Amino acid sequence: MLFKKKEPAITVSKLIPDLKSIDDVLPNPRAWSPEALQEASNNLKFTSSRDIDPIENLTVQFLFRKFFTMMHQTGLYNPQKRLWSLLALAKQVELKEYKKLSKKQKELAKVTDIIISDIYGKFIVARLVHPGCKLDYPGFNDLFSKASHKCIGLFYISDLVVTETVLTNIWQRTNNNHFFDKYRSPIGENTSFNLIRYQPNQDSLTYTLVHPNLGKDATVNAMVRAQELEAFEIKASVLV
What we know:
Layout: E1 9-14, H1 34-42, E2 44-48, H2 54-74, H3 81-89, E3 92-97, H4 103-106, E4 111-117, E5 123-129, H5 140-143, E6 151-158, H6 164-173, H7 181-184, E7 186-187, E8 191-200, E9 204-211, E10 220-225, E11 232-234
Parallel strand pairs: 2-11, 5-6, 6-8
Antiparallel strand pairs: 1-2, 1-3, 3-4, 4-5, 7-8, 8-9, 9-10
């Protein structure tokens, strides 16, 4: 009998069950101080069926530990409440290779879809372009086709230079001239889109929210250190 390996699945839970975590923030967000919110985001445990690529690992850490907190501190959680809530309630993360690249293109770029889902089948797709990409925004336009009733959020995350052409494309798709939609960044009725750019430092990555633009004096970024790789508990690979 032949066995096929599952895509690596990551389960999300509380590190210390009796302490509060990010799901406890939802009922009354305004009651949480920055310090309490940081403690809640630290009380997360990720259990993987196998080793995770470092850039994928750090990006998962960023979305759960840093971006969730950034949304709270900047107020972005209000226009993107569905996405923010799903991050808090997520129970599983899947890592899937983006397969719509030709054989030649795969030699020039590596792209991973990070799929974050809750127990009700609603999900977020974060399309991650690995460092060293030699293509121009691979899988970017195709990402928007993922928007649906169950897809609550879309991210495009890369270290690629953000051009005016890319931003204009996003603004047109997300009704950027509308005051509320400028921050909700809607693709269809239920899906919000965020563009993130990361930059490597000596022992960390700095992630910057490029779109939505929260204002001239509201540059939103967060650093994820390499030491946070240890936040994953690795279990034996599972064969199906």
